[in-house]
Write a structure and sequence with these properties.
Length: 463
């Protein structure tokens, strides 16, 4: 057997080793996402190939893929992980239907269907399960929650309302809850900045800007999620600015979320930042222990009533899970699901030590490692200023750490080579390839290098 074959064998999962029962996984999608989302989007996903740590899933069109990736990917991954812990990535492949490709009329029909589904209206769906009733109040979100409710009582009193905070802390949940509350009496538009961009580009291509402008400007409540996404996109910012102004002029309520405060949005026009900051800015902080415990308890109740089963987690175990989950609420819920899945499979009341074992695996897998974090940890580790590490200087004491950081960025994040290059002071992707190769080679030859990399890796996973 040659070298390539050995490699392949490690990557592929052979027929006997396949562990996923795709039918079962899809059943669980139905339960988690509800029938409507399931039949419109998820039912059509097929399993193409299973690897140890990732899956290739098939979808019918590019549009389908974009939609699923932007709305459901996190949850889908969370869900499949509960069947197979070692999975940490999902890729989509567009499968052309060969039956149709020879039949032109059918293709035409198909295209029409896609066009209709692709209409803006389809993006304006609010998720009924993200409401005020199941949003748990805590010290970290108290202010954001109470102003979100106030906005619902007095439209355009706090305008715009700008909610900021890190990932997984509940921004989308709050925005969605506001939309639900207001939708019966208002024309509510709820869209992520990313989708806004998508429609913007599509309308330009189709020469249909008039409809685009009209559509957004007729809303009386305009909710836009993750506005940081407009950074660097000048023409989109221009359009957003005009939409924003015309909505404000006619007294529509605008609600915005972002991962940072308005003034900290980089590569966003100053006039937009000051418009965004001109109403009320509230932030959501990381949850404290009490909030985490309350969220876990609420989630347990939800799962119990949804699946008509009894979930037996002791107070001790609950507070253990809460204290161990350090980053955000999305992660907390992911961990809880994992623990519950384990107790189901083993049909037992879990002890702290069971939980420790489960979490050990979970934490090493779902820790989110970002390029920023890698750069910080690496420069600290080698005790050099970050700015020197990113600079153009080529002396070895700077170049090696820089290469190590690029190598880890490639290995530990899902960023592409060009993206990584850009994050390292706009270097070319070939520089990144060279760095990765160099470090792979050095760590095979040099024990010191190997040790350093493994230490940095564990620092990254600990934090
Ligand atoms: P963000 O948009 O800030 O990244 P999300 O709104 O998507 O975060 O929240 C992540 C997950 O955590 C969602 O499942 C959400 O329902 C849940 N969540 C966040 N905050 C709360 C809360 N206070 N009470 C209940 N669930 C919450
Ligand atoms: Mg969000």
């Amino acid at each position: 057997m040659d070298k390539n074959n050995i490699k392949k064998q490690n990557l592929y999962v052979s027929e006997e080793e396949k562990t996923l029962n795709w039918g079962e996984v899809k059943d669980s999608f139905k339960k988690t996402f509800g029938n409507e989302i399931y039949t419109s989007w998820l039912q059509k996903i097929s399993l193409i190939k299973e690897y140890n740590d990732y899956l290739i899933l098939g979808v019918p069109t590019r549009f389908f893929r974009d939609w699923i990736v932007s709305r459901y990917l996190d949850k889908i991954l969370e869900q499949v992980k509960s069947f197979k812990l070692s999975l940490n990535r999902i890729e989509f492949k567009i499968i052309e239907d060969s039956k149709n490709s020879s039949d032109l009329t059918k293709i035409d029909e198909l295209n029409k269907v896609t066009e209709i589904k692709d209409s803006i209206l389809n993006y304006n769906r609010l998720n009924p399960s993200l409401n005020f009733d199941n949003f748990i109040k805590g010290k970290s979100n108290d202010i954001a929650l109470s102003y979100s409710k106030k906005v619902c009582e007095h439209i355009s009193r706090y305008n715009p309302l700008y909610i900021c905070g890190g990932v997984g802390l509940g921004k989308t949940h709050l925005l969605n809850a506001i939309g639900l509350q207001l939708q019966s009496e208002n024309n509510v538009m709820f869209i992520s900045a990313e989708r806004f961009m998508y429609h913007f580009i599509k309308s330009i291509k189709k020469n249909d800007m008039v409809n685009f402008k009209d559509f957004f400007r007729k809303s009386s409540v305009f909710i836009i999620d993750d506005i940081q996404f407009i950074r660097g996109k000048e023409s989109l910012q221009e359009e957003f600015f005009h939409t924003f102004n015309s909505l404000m002029d006619k007294g529509s309520q605008i609600i915005i979320s972002a991962d940072r405060t308005p003034m900290k949005l980089d590569r966003v026009q100053e006039r937009i930042k000051s418009r965004l900051a001109g109403g009320l800015v509230v932030d959501i902080d990381s949850p404290d222990l009490e909030l985490k415990v309350n969220i876990i308890k609420k989630k347990i109740l939800e799962i119990e009533s949804q699946f008509k089963e009894n979930i037996n987690l002791s107070e001790e175990v609950i507070s253990y899970i809460a204290s161990e989950s350090k980053t955000n609420i999305r992660e907390l819920i992911g961990i809880l699901n994992r623990v519950i899945a384990f107790s189901r499979v083993h049909n037992k009341v879990l002890t702290i030590s069971d939980c420790k074992n489960i979490l050990k695996d979970v934490f090493s897998q779902i820790k989110v490692v970002t390029v920023d974090k890698i750069q910080n940890v690496v420069s600290n580790f080698f005790n050099i200023p970050l700015s020197d590490m990113l600079s153009q200087r080529r002396s070895r004491p700077l170049a090696r750490p820089r290469q190590i950081a690029m190598f880890l960025a490639k290995k530990m994040t899902s960023r592409s080579l060009p993206e990584i290059g850009r994050r390292f002071a706009n270097r070319d992707h070939t520089t990144v390839i060279h760095a990765v190769k160099t470090i792979v080679r050095l760590s095979e030859q040099d024990d010191e290098m190997k040790k350093n990399i493994s230490q940095i890796r564990s620092l990254l996973l600990e934090q």
